[in-house]
Structures are given as structure tokens and as C-alpha cells.
Amino acid sequence: LQKGEVSVDTIRRFIKIHDLRNPVICEERIRKSFVVDNAGDLWEADTCYLFKIPDVKGNLKWVYIQGIMDDHSRKIVAAFCYMKDDAESFQKTLFHAISSHMIPACLYVDNGSPYICVQLKEICNRLGITLIHARSEDGASKGCIERFWLSITMATLPDLILDKVNTLEGVQKVVDQFVEKYNNKLNSGVNGIPNERFQASILRKPARKAKSMEWLREQFVNQKWCHLYNDNVIHFNCARYRIPDELVHEVRQVYKESVPIRYDPKDIDGTICVILKGQQHALKLDDPRENNNQRRNTGGRKEQLAEQAKEKKQKKMSVAEQRAEERYQRRMAGVQLPAAEETLPMVEETLP
Questions:
Q1: SS3 assignment for 76-116
Q2: CA nearest 172: which of 51, 70, 43?
Q3: pLDDT range class, residue 300, cuts 50, 70, 90
């Protein structure tokens, strides 16, 4: 090295000592506990990994609890166990909470996959619920329900392990028992019993209820665009559904290759339908065996080509030929032509 030059190793050593490679800017966040004024003003939702049970093949799989807590009363309005932590599972949990209690004003969730899907946003818009997402990797912002996960894990894990619970129904039964006790004992966060605070708030401010179960199910119907293949079927949820034959032509005129499909995530096969001009038309599973028993429509194409040829020939006919054709058809029908038309120049009149 020449005088005044610095070696590469010296620079690397300086960066390592002073930790300049990946600088982390720490943001100081002020944490303060809060409680909303009334039940239903804010619901917090989250997912917890609770326990592992064997699946059909004998492999251990996680059991997920999706829970919803009312912030005012700290009451658990819904807590259900699933083998998958997905959007459809959370929609089932939210449906049960709303049908059993009320429609909340706000729903506070994190940025997990069940809570950022388009379907949940559409459901909240229909029901008038404000969907709020916490900051990424900021679990402390939902401290109330996070504290509940700690309580339920510490209380139920010993029972699950000692009793050797190996079914989803068994885990759900243990969770239901704990939630019942939790909602009826003193909560230090609000200095009251969750069930009592919840009921007192409803008496003070009536809850916003669903109009009916049918109306509520309609609000939870999902919508998705699916590709329409050449054989008039769509692929959805690992199955093939056929568009009714009487609607195929009109559907292709309106939507071309992609069609909107509506379905209820709790019962896809029984509720899936296609939307056409504001009306819903049910779809059925495509059955290859039933298709094999149907008669092939081989003659329809020939008749269609004959009609097209006839229309094409009529378009090429001159005005005189068209008039002659009309006179011939009228004579064949037994209509006597006026003398003026009989004296018109005649052309060769043949049936097409």
C-alpha cells in the first residue's frame, strides 16, 4: 500500500465493529392500554397454534384456533378449531360470531393470509364493518387477544397432553370449556366479568343485529372470476362445473372467457352459481359418465351450415330475382297475383 491508502480489510473491520452493514432504526412506540365505550365497537381477531394431532395418514398436524374478542367486555364471542388457517375458516368463525351476538362496528386484525383476502373485505363492506389491519410484525398492538392466547395455552395444554386428545372434536370440546369459564370470571383488564359487561352494554346501547339468517348468509357469499373452457366448464375448488346448455351462448356473449362465480364457503357444491344479468343460475358438477349417455348432436352442425348457405345465397340475389321469388311463393300458396305484377319481366324462378 502506498502512503495515504487504506486496505480493504481495514474497511471491512471498521464496518463490522461499528455494525454498519445492516443498520436498524428503532422506533420508540408508546404503548397504552385502551377500552372502547360499548360492546361491538371493536372486535379483535387472531389465530393461535395450539396443539398437534394426527391426521388421516398419521402425520402430526397443527390445530389452529381462530378467535374473536369483544374489546369492551373482553368476551370471547367465537373460538373455533381448524386444521387449516385459511380465509374460509375465518369467515365461518365470523359468521358464527355475528349470528350469535351482533354486527360489530370495527374488526381489528393482523396481516395474516386469512385477514387480507378480497372476500373478507367485500363481506365487511356489505355489513358496514370497518376492517382495520395492525402494523406488520406488531403483535403487541392486539395485546388483549394475545394475552388470551397465553391463558388458553397454559390452561388447556396439560389437559390435552394428559388426556391424549387426538381428534379435532376433542380439542374443540376442551377449548369450549375454557372459553365458558373465561367469559364468566373476573377479568383484570376491565375489572369486571366479560359476560356481565357485554349484557350491560347491550342494555345501554342496543346491538345491531342481522335482519335474518338468510340475509346474513347472502352477505357472506363469495365471488370469484373463473376461466370458461371450450367444453363449457369451469375449474373451481379442484372440481369441474358445467354451465347449463341453455345459458352457454348468452354467457359467452356477455363475459367472453371469464365468468363471475358466487358460492358459500360453508357449502360450495350446494351454492355455487353463475351470475347473468343480475340473476343467479345454479351450476352442477360435470359428470363424464352422464355425458357419455347423452346422444351426440351430430346433425345440428349440418343444419346450421345449410341455413348459413341459404342466407348467403339470398344476400347475393338481385332485386329482380327477389321479386320473382316472392311472386313464385305467392302463386304456390294459391294467391292470385294482380295483372300489373303478371306483366313484370320474368326471370327463372327456382326454389333455393
A1: EEEEEEECCCCHHHHHHHHHHHHHHCCCCCEEEECCCHHHC
A2: 51
A3: low
Separation CA 248–CA 242 (nearest Å): 9
Q: In this structure, are strands 279-282 and 273-276 parallel, antiparallel, or unpaired? A: antiparallel
- Mean pLDDT (the chain, rounded): 82
Dihedrals φ, ψ of 145, to 5°?
A: -75, -25
d(CA 74, CA 190): 8
**What sign has the CA pseudo-torsion 222, 228, 234, 235?**
negative
**Cα 143 to Cα 290: distance, rounded to the nearest angstrom:** 56
Residue from 193, 167, 160 nearest 76 by CA: 193
DSSP letters spanning 234-256: EEETTEEEEPPHHHHHHHHHHHT
Contact 92, 99 (CB under 8 A): no
Q: What mean pLDDT do residues 33-49 have?
A: 91
Residue 44, CB-side half-sphere exposure with 13 Å CA sphere: 23
* Rg, Å, the chain Cα set: 35
Distances 67 to 38, 48, 76, 350 between C-alpha atoms, Å: 20, 8, 7, 81
- Given a contact cutoff of 8 angstroms between Cβ atoms, the answer to whether 75 and 183 are in contact is yes
The number of CA neighbours under 13 Å toward the Cβ of 188 is 3
Identify any residues that bridge with 130 across adjacent strands, giving them in sequence order: 106
3-state secondary structure of 288: helix
Q: Which pLDDT value is given to residue 228?
A: 85
Residue that wins the pLDDT comparison between 181 and 119: 181
Tell me, yes or no, if the pTM score tops 0.85. Answer: no
Residue that has been written with the C-alpha cell 373460538 in this structure: 79
pLDDT digits (tens, 9 = 90+) for 185-231: 999 888 999 999 999 999 999 889 999 998 998 888 887 888 888 88
What is the rounded CA–CA span in Å between residue 148 and residue 163? 22
> Is residue 110 within 8 Å of 142, Cβ to Cβ?
yes
CB 224 within 8 A of CB 261: yes
Distance CA 189, CA 276 (A): 52
